Amino acid sequence: MPNPKQPTPAVRAAGGLDRLWRTSVGEDAAFLLARANALSLAAASEVLSPLGLKVRSYSVLALAVSAERPNQRELSEFLRLDPSQLVALIDELEGRGLVRREPDAADRRVNVVVATDAGRALCADARVATERAEAAAFAVLGDDDIARLKEHLRALAGAPEAD
Amino acid sequence: MPNPKQPTPAVRAAGGLDRLWRTSVGEDAAFLLARANALSLAAASEVLSPLGLKVRSYSVLALAVSAERPNQRELSEFLRLDPSQLVALIDELEGRGLVRREPDAADRRVNVVVATDAGRALCADARVATERAEAAAFAVLGDDDIARLKEHLRALAGAPEAD
DNA sequence: CCTAAATCATTGAGAAAGTCAATGATTGGA
DNA sequence: TCCAATCATTGACTTTCTCAATGATTTAGG
Predict the structure, then answer these.
(1) Dihedral angle over CA of A145, A150, A152, A158, nearest 10
(2) Taking the domains of chain A in order of start, what are their residue ranges?
(3) Considering only Cβ atoms within 10 Å of each terminal Cβ, which end of chain A, N or C, has fewer?
(4) Which of A13-22, B25-34, B98-107 has the lowest mean pLDDT?
């Protein structure tokens, strides 16, 4: 039996990365957040790609589907994207007929981004796909853990207090 | 008093983005994760930049400081970076004398990445800076909420079970 | 042994994403 | 009416991501 004090080459080869988890980095909340995010992002990307969507374009589409009629600046701020990235994103969605730029009646500088019927349909599909993927990614946690986690993330993410 | 049924232009102009939080996107765990991560990343970047570090290089440095003597493949897997990105990252740290590539005695293909004394010193500074920033970013949560959140994130991030 | 397949670090190229400054149209306030 | 601010857009530039290919080395099978 190998000496457990020093990790043997065999241990290092096996499952393998556990010893790095024991470093300070593995305790760092920012790192955990980044890693969890990377995994969830990868899971979502995978199920969205057959629909011709990326996580980014899906976020825009989903907000365009909502009744809130967001404009580009609001999307930019909410999604933390540069306004110029929004332009490209919306150009692409609009080119595919999923979304429309509607001039704001009250302010002609502003474009409101609205989903078309095709956009709504695709968004619905995308939503069931990502919800399934999300459920799988979060399956390591129990339902009330997930609920608690979401509450905490909402607070961190700067969501307004629940009414 | 304006009719609360329809958001008035005044409301939309004010704090402003609350109504987007009420969409399905604002309930999506993946979105919350992404947004919380973006904020924590921005906070860390800000305090690291005066030290000449980015979040990426700090992660590598912190792991190089640990006693675990990670090699490049392990760093790549743990940090979810392409091996080629590690090369560039380590080149830069090594050029600044913060880190050293040591040939692995047991396998000559492998480089172990170890921090120099200068690297340890800088990492210590960076650590207090990021810990302070992290504390500020997580201050909206109470201490035991933070502990719970970290547990959940560890599970999501694929950390091994605690012993 | 010896060869074949696999692994590690590296290079390089091209796509995607992020950052920033400048512009034209429009609005709102002094 | 004029001036500063705001919105969407463009363009340039940097950084990051993703992939395929390579040389050195190790491992496994015959």
Answers:
(1) 180
(2) 9-157
(3) N
(4) A13-22
Contact A80 B159 (CB under 8 A): no
* Cα gap A79→A61, rounded to integer Å: 12
Residue A79 Cβ < 7 Å to strand D: no
B contacts of A146 (beta carbons < 8 Å): 29
Burial of B85 (0-12, 13-18, 19+ CB in 10 A): middle
- Are A55 and A45 in contact by the 8 Å Cβ rule? The answer is yes
Amino acid at A14: A
Can you tell me whether residue B115 is helix, strand or coil?
strand
Scanning residues 97 through 136 of protein chain B, those with a beta carbon under 7 Å from any atom of strand C turn out to be 101, 107, 109-111
Lowest mean pLDDT of A10-24, A41-55, B12-26, B88-102, name the range: A10-24
User: B95: distance to nearest CA of chain A, Å?
Assistant: 23
Nearest residue on chain B to A59, alpha-carbon basis? B25
Beta-bridge mates of residue B102? B112
Decide: B30 and A130 in contact? Cβ < 8 Å. yes
pTM to 2 decimal places: 0.89
Segment A98-149, tens digit of pLDDT: 999 999 999 999 999 999 999 999 999 999 999 999 999 999 999 999 999 9
Please indicate whether, in this complex, the C-beta atoms of B37 and A40 are within 8 angstroms of each other: no
pLDDT over threshold 70, residue B64: yes
Is A59 in a helix, a strand, or coil?
helix
**Burial (CB count within 10 angstroms: exposed 0-12, middle 13-18, buried 19+), residue B68:** buried
Q: Per the CB < 8 Å rule, is A158 touching B130? A: no
Beta-bridged to residue A71, according to DSSP, are A112
Nearest C-alpha neighbor of A26 from the set B63, B43, B93 = B63
